[in-house]
Amino acid sequence: MNPFDLSGPEFLVFYVVYIAVIFIAAEIYWRVRTARPEAPLPTNPYEIAYLRGGAREAARVAVMGLVGRGIIKQFEGRQLQVAKERATRLPDPFERRTAEFFGTRRLAGDKALTAFVQEPLRSLAAKLESAGLMLDGKLRGERVLLTLAVVAALWLMAGIKIAVALGRGRTNIGFLILLASVASIAAIVMFYRTARTRAGGRALSALTNLNRRPVGTGSNFSEVMLYAAIFGVAATQLEANPYYRKPNEGGESGSGCGSSSGDSGGSSCGGGSGCGGCGGGGGD
Amino acid sequence: MIADRFGLSWRGKLSTAILANRARIDAIELIADDYLDAPATKLRHFRALAREIPLGLHSIHLGLASTVPVSSAYLDRIARVADVIDPASFSDHLAFVRSGDTEIGHMHAPIRDEATLDSTLVNLARTERIIGRKPEVENIATLIDPPGCAMTESEWLAKLLGRCQNRLLLDLHNVHANAINFGFNAGTFLDALPLDRVHTVHIAGGKWIADDDGNRRYLDDHLNPVGDPTYALLETLAAKAPNPLTIILERDGRYPPMRELLDELDRARAAVTRGRAQRERS
Fold first, then answer.
1. Neighbour count for residue A54 (Cβ, 10 Å)
2. A interface test, pick of B9, B11, B19 with most A CB neighbours within 10 Å
3. Which residues have a Cβ under 8 Å from the Cβ of A208 and sit 6 or more positions away?
4. Calpha distance A275→A256 (Å, rounded)
5. Distance CA B159, CA B114 (A)
6. Cβ contact (<8 Å) for A41 and B49?
7. What confidence tier does A83 reach under pLDDT thresholds 50, 70, 90?
8. What residues of A are in contact with residue B45 (Cβ under 8 Å)?
9. Contact B12 A209 (CB under 8 A)
10. Cβ atoms within 10 A of the Cβ of A25, count?
11. Could you tell me if A79 and A25 are in contact, meaning their C-beta atoms sit under 8 angstroms apart?
């Protein structure tokens, strides 16, 4: 059977199957290529936050940590300013740079902050890359080639059919062009949706599943930081968290109560915010 | 310098606190029986964890010290968990938990005689064959001294270990509780054991209870802080045991803030350090 002899609708059905086969093959190849069975499980909150949500999330966790430790102070209207005498002594360059951002009183704007802390984040990203949790330069290059290969395969099949159709005096090629275009965009989205490797995705999934209990007043700050890194700063519901908004407070990043409930309850209480309260019991 | 480890039993409610305080926790212990029906994905998460921190897989329901054979079906389920997680060690108690097809629901001290000893050895061999790992065997606490015993607990344990190569998971709080309840000296008990077979140690807390007649017993409940006598036993053990020890603090409920558990681990570290110093001096 020559697929190029199929009628227009028949070829479209064939082409959908072809797209599926190409996508599945490419996904399997990419998963195998980025799997690393012995990849480590990160426990540094900034590394976890970066793995989960990139520079923006790492910066948010850093701000929350610095506020919680009193190195950045909160003022009226949730404006933040660093306590300079302590900021200069911070040993972690990422924390020190984050603190510098609040040299003057300002809101924790995500975009400006993220741009400001790029430099120290590079070494953090490099660590995750060398651990096989995020795509390094070589894998990013392979991702470009793989995406190009998928798009080329999609348009090769479509292009031949279009040429055959036009040669036979047919002009009903609109759906095929649309389908090839949509599939090409989907391929780009599929391979560029995350900078994590498969091993990185698995590590994040493991951390999420191993840490389902909400943290609360009985928790020390390192526990809160870890929890924020894994689930997002909004999940901590603590006053020390400048990104957390009480339900009636509004604000761009305030989502009210975080969605941090565990799989079988917990015994922790919120840290005095509007959404506080004690989780249920149960345990494994 | 012997590199001893100090860790906690993994509990869902402590998970974030354990990972957040990883720098002060050298090892963890996971109850295998809680994850028999867990999907492979969940078990693989523990495998990832086991690559980061030495993880001992601990079972509570095999019933090794019994004339009743260990359930093959149960061993198969434990083996599945162990195969996926690939733990650093595997252990269970020297207790009986079922009679025929009847599950008792908790661990009982075995009748300490030759017959139970022989069948325990058979159970240990079967367990090793099916799980693929030689189980460490743990001494248990009991409120009832089994009737018809031909040997003391230390004699029975020493005899068992003399006839197999399994390691002894020494629960010091169980030793302490039994010593109180049955009036023997815990230090003498330790001296009767082959301490060169001890690699893992449990410590825990307990409380006094009284029956209707007002008779007081000491209960190993894992709900209270570790007491001074247990730390003293740990020091004694560290002075005599030649191998690196993994000391696991067991806590099963009424969880205090993690800093209190870490303080207990620090006290255990201090006790072991004192014991190791004595060992070097001698």
1. 17
2. B19
3. A230, A231
4. 7
5. 9
6. yes
7. confident
8. 205-206, 209-210
9. no
10. 12
11. no
Residue A226 near chain B (CB below 8 Å) = yes
DSSP string for residues in B226-272? PPHHHHHHHHHHHHH--S--EEEE---SSPPPHHHHHHHHHHHHHHH
Residues of A with Cβ-Cβ distance to B15 under 8 angstroms: 210-213
Cα–Cα distance between A41 and B48 in angstroms, integer? Answer: 6
Among the partner-chain residues A206, A262, A263, the one whose CB lies closest to the CB of B45 is A206
Query: Cβ contact (<8 Å) for B257 and A218?
Result: yes
Q: What length is written for chain B? A: 282
Token code pair at residue A77:
């209207």
Q: Is A204 on the interface with B (CB under 8 A)?
A: no
Asked if B21 lies within 8 A of A38 by C-beta distance, the reply is: no
As a whole number of angstroms, the distance between CA B223 and CA B206 comes to 7
pLDDT score at A116: 84
pLDDT of residue A267: 31
| pLDDT tens digits, B178-218 | 999 999 999 999 999 999 999 999 999 999 999 888 889 99
Alpha-carbon gap, residue A135 to A127, rounded angstroms: 11
Give the chain B residue nearest A268 (alpha carbons).
Answer: B13
Question: Smallest Cβ distance to A283: which of B13, B46, B257?
Answer: B13
Report the predicted TM-score, pTM, of the whole model to 2 decimal places.
0.80
Angle A203-B14-B255 from CA coordinates, rounded to 5°: 175
Whole-complex ipTM: 0.78
Could you tell me which of A206, A204, A193 has the C-alpha nearest to residue A229? Answer: A204
**A279, A262 contact by CB (below 8 A):** yes
Q: Is the pLDDT of residue A259 over 60?
A: no
Looking at the complex, report in whole angstroms how far the Cα of residue A65 sits from the nearest Cα belonging to chain B: 13
Are B45 and A209 an interchain contact pair (Cβ–Cβ within 8 Å)? yes
Count of Cβ atoms closer than 10 Å to residue A33 Cβ:
14
Could you give phi then psi for residue A60, rounded to 5 degrees? -65, -45
Question: Are B234 and B247 in contact, with CB atoms under 8 Å apart?
Answer: yes
- Asked if A150 contacts A158 with a C-beta cutoff of 8 angstroms, the reply is no
C-alpha dist (Å) from residue A79 to A73, A169, A199: 8, 68, 38
pLDDT tens per residue across span B148-181: 999 999 999 999 999 999 999 999 999 999 999 9
